[in-house]
Structure formats: C-alpha cells, structure tokens
Amino acid sequence: MTTRYAMKIALRAIARNRSRSALTVLGVVIGIAAIILLESLGAGAQDLILRQIQGMGAKTVVVMPGREPRGPSDFVQILSSSLKERDLESLRRKTSVPSAEEVMPIVFGAETASYRGETFRLTIFGSSSAIARILDLTPSEGAFFSEDDVKGRGEVIVIGDKVREELFGDAPAVGERIKIKNRNFRVVGVLPRKGQVSFFNFDEAAVAPYTAVQSYVLGIRHFQRLIVEASSEDAIPRTVRDIEATIRNSHGITDPEKDDFHVETPADLAETLGVVTNVLTLFLVAVAAISLVVGGIGIMNIMLVAVTERTREIGLRKAVGATYRDILTQFLFEAAMLTAFGGLIGVSLGAFFSFLATLVLGGVVALDWRFTFPVTAALLGLGVALLVGLVFGLYPARRAAKLNPIEALRYE
C-alpha cells in the first residue's frame, strides 16, 4: 500500500468522525498551545527586561537598601531606610570611589497631582539633575531642573507626556503650577513619550529635585536607590568593591554577612533573569508535557474504540489482500495525522493568544512589549505531537493489524 493511499484512508476515517476526532486531539491542542504561549510570553518578558536593564546604561551600578535577597523574607528589607545622606556624600568623594563618574539618589512614590480641577495619579521621582543624562530624560519642551534647584529644595518639576495630556490637554504646561501634597510645583519641562525606562513608566511620572520630594512630598530622610555611574564597563568590578567598602565603613559594618545594603550591576540582573526564565520555562514545559501525555492516552483509547468498531472493515480489507504492514501503516497514519492536526491548531492558537496578550500588555498596561514567535518551540511542538501520535497509536495499530480476518468478518 502506498503512502498516499494510506493517508487518503486515514483522512477519510478522520472525516467520518469529526466530533470524536476533535475531542481526541483536545489534550494535544491545549498542550501545544500552552507551550507556544508560554515560550512566547517568556521570550517577550526576557526581551523587555533586558531592554530595561540596557536603558539604565551598561556602566551603572545600583545600590539597594537591605541585604541581597536570599529568600522571600529578605525582599521586605528592600523597603528599609538604610541608605542615608551620609552614604551619598561618602560615595561622591573621589577618594572613596575613584572610578565613580556620577552618584545620584532616587526616591519615589505614588501621589495625586492636580491642576484647575483636573487630577492625575502619577509616580513622582526625586533625584539630582544627573538623571536627565544617565536615563536620557531630555525634555521636549522647556528644560530640566538644575543642581541649584536641588540645593535650594526648589519646587520645580519635569512631567511625563501622559501627565501633561491629562492635566493640561492641548494647553501649554511649562510655567504652570501643579499641586502635589499641597505644594505648588512649577512645571519647567515636559518629557517626550518614553514608555518604560529602567522598569518605570516615565510617561505617567514626574521628576523633581530629591530634596524637595523628600521634604515636601514623601516626608522621608532616606533614599530608595543610589545609582553610581562608573567610568567604564571594565571599571564596574572595582567600583562595586569600593562602594561596598565605603558604605560598610559609613554604617560601621565589619562582617559582610551583616550588610544592610546590596549592590546590583546590569550583569547581575541579566544573570538572575536568565536563571528565573530557565526555571519557569522548564516548569511550564513540564506542565504542557503532562497535557500532551494525557492527550496521547486519550488518542490511544479512542483508537482502540475505533479498532473495535471497524473490526469487520479490517477483516474485509485483509480478506482482499491487505497485509499486516498495510493495516499497521493505516492506523499509524491516522493517529499521526490526528496529532499533527492538533499540533497545527495548537501552534495557531498559541500564536493568536500570544499576539492578543501583546496587544493587551502594550495597549492597556502600557508596556513596551514586543510579540515574539518561538519558531524553535513551534517546530519542536509539532515534532512532539507527531511522536505522541506514533507512540500512543502504535498499540491500537498493532492490535488492528493482528486481527484474524475470519474472526473479524464474523464480528457483529
């Protein structure tokens, strides 16, 4: 029997039982769709986070409060107030960290801004004027605040494009005053539409001198981040060592195990991202594999039912000359084609839902999310689907091929 003829018979058998065939491959469809969706979202998330890390600059080092997280309980320490003004002053001394080009503090919080009856919930950042250069926050209108504004706790502010749109509409914003925490901040600049920069959406944010934000808005005396720009990428390891030594000296820490801060570099973040992504991918693929196995068992059961229902047909084919190999090939083709169809549908559904998720994350959540189609995962998924069909279809196919033609023709 030729391959073409075997495929024709298999297609005819599948077409005769459309509903049963659809239900049979449901597990395979779900498994493959899950693999495509999860791989696509994982790749999209990795791409987004890597771009956010790159947005910080390859030479930047971030000092965080609390020791380096080693378990769930350690993440609470990130909210601690261990980074103070004395740490900023110590790091800015050239004798402490010779390779540091710039040291800038970061404080932030969610607040409501108002202007002539219009209100908008924004994230307000407090920093030095260096943030404009390091994070490429050059205003499209007006200018950024100066270091004199920082020293004088100036109530001046640079707003994101979405903030301007919500509070001012088409009216000019530069020179106007917006109220935050009963303080009137004068708008000196408007940022162009930026989207996500270093994990923050600056379109819905505003930046002001950290001295003013600490005193008038947040009411705190500590920093949530200290960002250090090294002289070069090669200088980062030395910069990290100097930062750790300087802050330990400032905090009176002699045992590194008792650190109340930790330092992160772009390489550290990328490495952590890779580990987390790999673990999640393995876990999710394992879940999808279980779905495929369940689908394979379903195919085997349905194929066994089909063999029983078509016993007389098998007997008749054997009576007119069909061999063991012909019957085996026919049923294997049927199982493989079922799972192949299921795999194609699964790939299509996975890609569709992944694209839908991209639209939601980009349009609704306002993330700079890019659609990524995992070609390798799709090809692997189709190959696995075919393998599932062949493996789980082998037993029913052999059972059909071994039927005695005389007994099969007597079957009622």
TrEMBL record:
One cellular component term from this protein's GO annotations in UniProt: plasma membrane
Span of domain ABC3 transporter permease C-terminal: 286-405
Domain of life: Bacteria
Subcellular location: Cell membrane
Coiled coil: none
Xref: Pfam families: FtsX, MacB_PCD
Family, as annotated: Belongs to the ABC-4 integral membrane protein family.
Protein name: Multidrug ABC transporter substrate-binding protein
